[in-house]
Amino acid sequence: MTTVFTVLILITSLVLIGSILLQSGKSAGLSGSIAGGAESIWGKNKGRSYEGILSKVTTVSAIIFIISALVLAAIK
Length: 76
Hints:
Helix content: over 70%
Structural class: mainly alpha
Radius of gyration: 17 Å
Number of helices: 4
Low-confidence stretches: none
Oligomer: single chain
């Protein structure tokens, strides 16, 4: 049973690292302040965009990682 959770932690940690590294920064600098009005137009489709998908993948993998780490600590 511990092997299953150890492998799950390994996989989710790699997914978590990859999804965090692929995300763009929140501060866009000067171009973000100039084109700030466009975000309100495209904000409706943010969940279907590349950034939205990466955000959801990061959230889900972090939750799975934390739960599996707690279960593994409780088993050992």
